[in-house]
Design a protein that fits this description.
By secondary structure, the protein is α/β, with parallel strands linked by helices. It is built from 5 helices and 11 strands, in the order E-E-E-E-H-E-E-E-H-E-E-H-E-H-E-H. Strands 1, 2, 3, 4, 5, 6, 7, 8, 9, 10 and 11 form an 11-stranded mixed β-sheet that branches. Helix 2 packs across helix 5. The longest helix is centred in the C-terminal third of the chain and has 24 residues. Bound molecules: hypoxanthine. Hypoxanthine binds next to strand 5, strand 10 and strand 11.
Length: 245
């Protein structure tokens, strides 16, 4: 099992991760967001990729998700844990909550969302009934217990286009659709991973209430504070996850 962690907003650098080697390879789909790092988290080796680049420069709709996943597979990665900062929608998903969703709904548009676009690869209509790997999810949930980190198992991730946040009516609609959390980077990443037969799961950090669910405005400072607080917990959790592999 070779694991990659894709770090999202606020996790361009994973606390405790020491880089041993950097890979600057290109892919047939262009360059990844940033050179992939091979390094150590505790005693365990893993690859790490900063989804938005370093410094954080790529908005969600301009990330080259295809290049990112392709580069990881070229390095021999077989499973991916994708870390995502999200807004909370359903009652338990308040700021600070960590969650491992088990479903998603894709509301994004106009992104390069498949490797089967008339190029060299023979078209496959991949199965996507369960968008996240149950093995990776189960292992994450077990690792959370080992690490003493509280997290919510399950829930529906809504992938929105961004880069703006939602309107109150949009969040109401997402709630009616059954969504529990909302983020901008979960798709097409999960589907592209599935096309490459990578085991993939998302680890979500709730950083704000969805628009209109709270009297307080959503501020970058408050989001930053939560990411700062949870960075170390997430890192400890991922360390336990890697130890289980
Ligand atoms: N909406 C969409 N994406 C997000 C949010 C949100 O409220 N918070 C963090 N990423």
């Amino acid at each position: 099992m070779t694991t990659a962690i894709i770090g999202g907003t606020g996790l361009n650098q994973l606390p405790g991760f020491t880089s041993l080697q950097e890979y600057t390879q290109d892919t047939p789909w262009g360059a990844p967001s940033h050179p992939v790092q091979r390094g150590k988290l505790g005693e365990c080796e893993a690859y790490f990729l900063a989804r938005h680049g370093v410094p954080h420069r790529l908005p969600p709709h301009l990330i080259n998700y295809r290049a990112n996943l392709w580069a990881l597979r070229e390095l021999g990665v077989t499973q991916v844990v994708a870390v995502n900062a999200v807004g909370g929608i359903s009652a338990p998903m308040g700021p600070g909550v960590l969650s491992v969703p088990d479903q998603l709904i894709d509301y994004t548009w106009g992104r390069q969302h498949t490797f089967y676009d008339g190029g060299e690869l023979d078209l496959k209509h991949i199965e996507f009934t369960q968008p996240y790997s149950s093995n990776v999810r189960d292992s994450l949930l077990q690792a959370a217990l080992d690490a003493g980190v509280e997290c919510r198992a399950g829930g529906v991730y809504a992938a929105t286009q961004g880069p703006r946040l939602e309107t109150a009516a949009e969040i109401k609609r997402l709630a009616q659709d059954g969504c529990d959390v909302v983020g901008m980077t979960g798709m097409p990443e999960a589907a592209l991973a599935a096309e490459l037969e990578l085991d993939y799961a998302a680890l979500c950090i709730v950083v704000n209430w969805g628009a209109g669910l709270n009297a307080q405005p959503i501020t970058e400072a408050a989001i930053h504070d939560i990411l700062q607080q949870q960075g170390v917990n997430v890192s400890g959790w991922l360390q336990q996850f890697l130890q289980r592999q």
